[in-house]
Amino acid sequence: MTKLIPIFIDGKTWIQLSQLTVDQARSLKSFLPVHSLTKILFQGIELSDCLDFDTYEYWFKSQQITGQRQATLDF
Known about the structure:
By secondary structure, this protein is of the alpha+beta class. The chain is built from 2 helices and 4 strands; from the N terminus they run E-E-H-E-E-H. It has helices at residues 22-31, 53-73; strands at residues 7-9, 12-16, 38-42, 45-52. It has a 4-stranded antiparallel sheet with strand order 1-2-4-3. A hairpin with a 2-residue loop joins strand 3 (38-42) and strand 4. The longest helix is centred in the C-terminal third of the chain and has 21 residues, at 53-73. It is globular.
C-alpha cells in the first residue's frame, strides 16, 4: 500500500479520503470515530473529505502491522 503525501493548509497537514482506493477509504472510515472528517476551504475550493495526517499515518501503520501479522499466519 502506498502512503499518501499530506496537503499543507494553514500550517496543518491533511489528506483527502478521495485520494485513497475505495477499499482503503472504506477501511479507514470504519477505523475512524464519527465526525472525524473535516471540510476545508482552500483557495476557493471546498475539500469535503479531509482528515488530519497524523490520524491517517496512525491508521496506515496499523494496516502495515496487521498485514505483516496476516502474512506470518499464512505460512
